Amino acid sequence: MQEIPDTMEELFLAWGPAPDPGQWPEYLREDPVRGYGLFCFCQGLALGLRRSEACRRD
Question: Do the domain assignments include residue 7?
């Protein structure tokens, strides 16, 4: 596995929310790794889509 750049880790620690099982689907609340992973993936995908849309408007 590749090394995670220091900048990426700093951004995650400054911006990444703490795990909150209340934001995960019921079936993943007992699996915190998958629950938090899915939550972060969805948030990242939504951010990417918003950025893409903003770039297309310009």
Answer: no
Domain presence at residue 52: yes
Number of domains in the chain: 1
- Whether the per-residue pLDDT at 1 is higher than 70: the answer is no
Q: What confidence tens digit (pLDDT) does each residue in 15-39 have?
A: 777 888 988 889 999 999 999 999 8
Asked whether 19 and 36 are in contact (CB, 8 A), the reply is yes
Q: How many CB atoms lie within 10 A of CB 28?
A: 16
End-to-end CA separation in angstroms for the chain? 37
CA atoms within 13 A of residue 13's CA, in its CB half-sphere: 7
